[in-house]
Amino acid sequence: MFVANRMAKNPITVTPETKVDAARELMKKHHFRRLPVVDEDGRLVGFLSDRDIMRVSPSPATTLSRYEITSLLAKMRIEDIMQKNVVSVNEDATIEEAALIMYNHKIGGLPVISSVGVVVGVITETDIFKTFVDVMGLTHGKTRFTIADVGDKVGVVRDLAGAISDCGCNIDSLVTCQQEDGNYEIVVRFDTADSDAVRRKLEEKGFHVAHVVKIG
User: Fold this and answer.
1) Is the dihedral of CA 193, 199, 200, 201 positive or negative?
2) Hey, what long-range contacts does 106-113 have (CB within 8 A, 24 or more apart)?
3) How far apart (Å, rounded) are the C-alpha atoms in residues 18 and 174?
4) Closest listed residue to residue 215, CA positions, set 140, 159, 103
5) Mean pLDDT to the nearest integer, 136-160
6) pLDDT tens, 26-49?
7) Is 70's pLDDT higher than 80?
8) pLDDT by residue (tens digit) across 170-199?
9) What is the percent of the chain with per-residue pLDDT over 90, rounded to a whole number?
10) Given a cut of 80, is residue 61 above it in pLDDT?
11) Which pTM was predicted?
12) Alpha-carbon gap, residue 2 to 94, rounded angstroms
């Protein structure tokens, strides 16, 4: 899957000259937490988050009146508070690349740009979570088998798939994850009317079935 297929397309943007109070109202109206900041050609020049606005907004303990607060924010421009060193992702990047960028930078969203630097979308942690749910087929009522202590040897996935096929089942998704001891854990999902029979078949083939549950 690619970022272009999972991002929010044609996002609402603001310019560096946009007033802070106008941006705040936009975010409130559309329930956004982030807004890309673009120049007159639509190229990315900054990123504005609700945290940036909160950082410059007077605290509840201030002695300023509501009118004074509104007046203060009305004079302030986006370029005064926006993030200028923006982390972005290209629209043809994979969803895994976007997730890794967000993980490494500890951020919840990324502006998505085209090959010429024009903003074409925004991808957030919510989009990543939804992709995970879709890829794993979590809403389809599949049975999840966790195979533990799998050695790193050629043919393991083939043998596992063969055992499941012998039970008349088709694999919907399969994920491997290396553990601290160097062995692997395999999580596989598929439809089955008799999970006990599948478990017995897998154990006959030498697999350690650590957990079985139907999700969705």
Assistant:
1) positive
2) 108/33, 108/34, 109/33, 109/34, 109/49, 111/11, 111/36, 111/44, 111/47, 111/86, 112/3, 112/4, 112/7, 112/88, 113/43, 113/44, 113/88, 113/89
3) 47
4) 140
5) 89
6) 999 999 999 999 999 999 999 999
7) no
8) 999 999 998 888 889 999 999 999 999 999
9) 73
10) no
11) 0.79
12) 4
Tell me what the mean pLDDT of segment 74-94 comes to: 92
Find the length of the chain. 216
Residue 127: CB atoms within 10 Å: 21
């809403």: which residue's tokens?
Answer: 139
